[in-house]
Design brief:
230 residues, mainly beta, 1 helix, 15 strands, globular
Length: 230
């Protein structure tokens, strides 16, 4: 079991509980629950990698995500996701689909570059289903430890270029500080977020460490990549 605790001076704390089953020393399933929500998530694994994710929303409805690993390693190369959002007296039931295709380059067992493009659709009983391409092609480049350093996009509508730049400080091979910069109105990169890290003595693999740190620095998932470290 893992407990992830978020604490805030103003709004209090919130805890996420992850309960695992294992087979041949690899995760087989994970049940995710929360002390602040009735939402539930179930993760199934294949050879230790996230394979399917099912979420039951607190307000009704669900989502399912399927991952594929064309390169035969632990980094997914495509995903398909569908969402069903329960309707209310004022809003109809909502549906959504998304398909991502990712070119994944790996060096020494760690991410070196990912390029993502895909399709999505949103519809309901009042609006017909219409598939659309992502507005951009999203490229993330990673340092020698598999940590995202530059995230850029080429848009069909919008200004191309760097969307995020991450600068990390390392001591004895581990990250102690990360600064995220984003372009401001003039196009210059401005610091928007800073993270500081402390460690216990539990060891994990370099690949899992990189995914974990990317998760905390740039988020669980985006148009660039999903950082499935747990």
């Amino acid at each position: 079991m893992i407990e992830m605790v978020y604490s805030d001076e103003d709004i209090g704390s919130a805890t996420t509980f992850l309960n695992y089953t294992f087979e041949n020393n690899l995760p087989k399933t994970c049940s995710v629950t929360y002390d602040y929500s009735d939402e539930k998530k179930t993760i199934e694994y294949n050879n230790g990698s996230v394979y399917t994710v099912h979420v039951d929303y607190e307000s009704g409805g669900f989502s399912d995500t399927w991952y594929q690993y064309a390169n035969g390693d632990g980094y997914f190369t495509s995903l398909f996701r569908e969402d069903h959002i329960a309707g209310t007296d004022f809003f109809p039931e909502q549906f959504a689909e998304e398909t991502d295709s990712v070119q994944v380059t790996v060096e020494n067992g760690l991410l070196k570059k990912t390029v993502n493009s895909g399709y999505y659709a949103n519809w309901n009983e009042r609006e017909p289903k219409k598939r659309l391409r992502f507005n951009g092609t999203y490229t993330a480049e990673y340092d020698s430890d598999g940590i995202a350093k530059t995230m850029s996009a080429v848009f069909r509508n919008g200004k191309d270029g760097i969307q995020y730049q991450i600068e990390v400080k390392k001591v004895n091979g581990v990250i102690t500080e990360a600064v995220v910069k984003q372009p401001d109105g003039s196009g210059s990169l401005t610091e928007t977020t800073k993270y500081e890290f402390e460690y216990i003595d539990t060891e994990i693999s370099a690949a899992r460490y990189s995914q974990m740190m990317n998760y905390f620095i740039i988020g669980a998932g985006s148009n660039y990549y999903n950082n499935n470290w747990y």
